[in-house]
Amino acid sequence: xxxxxxxxxxxxxxxxxxxxxxxxxxxxxxxxxxxxxxxxxxxxxxxxxxxxxxxxxxxxxxxxxxxxxxxxxxxxxxxxxxxxxxxxxxxxxxxxxxxxxxxxxxxxxxxxxxxxxxxxxxxxxxxxxxxxxxxxxxxxxxxxxxxxxxxxxxxxxxxxxxxxxxxxxxxxxxxxxxxxxxxxxxxxxxxxxxxxxxxxxxxxxxxxxxxxxxxxxxxxxxxxxxxxxxxxxxxxxxxxxxxxxxxxxxxxxxxxxxxxxxxxxxxxxxxxxxxxxxxxxxxxxxxxxxxxxxxxxxxxxxxxxxxxxxxxxxxxxxxxxxxxxxxxxxxxxxxxxxxxxxxxxxxxxxxxxxxxxxxx
Length: 360
Ligand SMILES: [Zn+2]
Ligand SMILES: [Zn+2]
Prior knowledge:
Blueprint: E1 2-8, E2 11-16, E3 27-37, H1 39-47, E4 63-64, E5 69-76, E6 87-90, E7 93-94, H2 100-104, E8 114-116, E9 119-120, E10 127-131, E11 135-137, H3 144-147, H4 150-163, E12 176-180, H5 184-195, E13 200-204, H6 208-216, E14 221-223, H7 228-235, E15 241-246, H8 251-259, E16 261-269, H9 281-287, E17 290-293, H10 302-311, E18 321-325, H11 330-340, E19 347-350
Parallel strand pairs: 8-9, 12-13, 12-15, 13-14, 15-16, 16-17, 18-19
Antiparallel strand pairs: 1-2, 1-4, 3-5, 3-10, 3-19, 5-6, 6-11, 7-8
Helix pairs in contact: 4-5, 4-10
The chain binds zinc ion (2 copies).
């Protein structure tokens, strides 16, 4: 079986592995139809230790990357009620189900959380193993490549839930929303926020083609970062946005996101970023803003909702796919291409078994 394995910093190799064999009880073996590459994968690629060691290493040394996988069940372990041949999208979190956070339903906060592609082998491979409970069937009408957008879409679904848009704009008017960062996640947040009742949506994004796409996908305004302060003031009647989502993952953008939030409004952080945010505490207190973090998704609420939004076409996933590549091209046309020309790509999908059959 071929798989893209991370051996260390900027050292991703497509290698032959032994067949995965019969899945353990409660798990399934999938033939992978498609697996997306996302910003988190690039962070790991660039910042991994020099050689494979935890958390980069899987149970058996170097780790198979990929956490945005969809596939077909080819074998089910004992006690699994998914049929062979069932198409599923993999939510990705391997959580214990028993700790304080799991019992609250906050699975991404699990004390022993690992994810497919992060701490455990993932979906950039011809086949993968996954717990059946995080493998969600999707409609025949949904193409597998678009279904692979379920993971990033569920990130957007959770962020919009965390934003509590209902009422954020007051009783009379819907919420005014700004999304900082018009990459895959930002453009999904803009779409999901609209469905959740946002009345007016602005996207802040440096790349002109992405601003055009944001408008095509329904944003009322798309603006470059250097014009954002003035444009957003105008856009919000001078008060600032009710809710600002930070989906760009740049520390400098976080400062802007807090600044562009109106007094009493909410800033939601979901871009993955390192760094330190300096906050002027007195003005933060006097503005009574909320700063909310939103981490990934849950398999039982966010992920199924994301799949339904893609199935019904309420969220346009296809518009975000710029590249479909083979597994052997994952470094040249995937990771390295995204690093060399980030503005030229949005979602890059790897199709490890060739083009999956069209939707039924
Ligand atoms: Zn992702
Ligand atoms: Zn747990």
